[in-house]
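Exercise 7. Predict the structure of NADH-quinone oxidoreductase subunit A from Aliarcobacter vitoriensis.
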Amino acid sequence: MSAELILASAIFVAIGLILAGVFVLTRFIGPRNENSQLKNNVYESGITNPIGTTNIRFSVKFYLVAISFLLFDVEVIFMFPWAVNVVELGVAGLYKMFIFMGLLFIGLIYIYKKKALSWD
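Solution. The predicted structure, encoded as tokens:
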């Protein structure tokens, strides 16, 4: 083995042991209020007695919009390196990007047909 690999492994193990030690140490040193009624109360912006329940259900449309955003945001992450290296990739890279964009467009059509983008 090389000296750099042994040093990196030792540093990795040392950091892991230090972190584990810190977590164990804070468990013993830190304050404990496990059964405090005040700790279990709801606190929202200074309002100690909120109106209604805090266990409300959100519409699934919020999650669909968030997942759709992440899906099409990842598209940009893949398009940027392609745009930087478009000359080196040549025609084959252009065809591959057209296929990628086509698949994403099919996904957008699917989302539109399922009415995930329409808001009631």
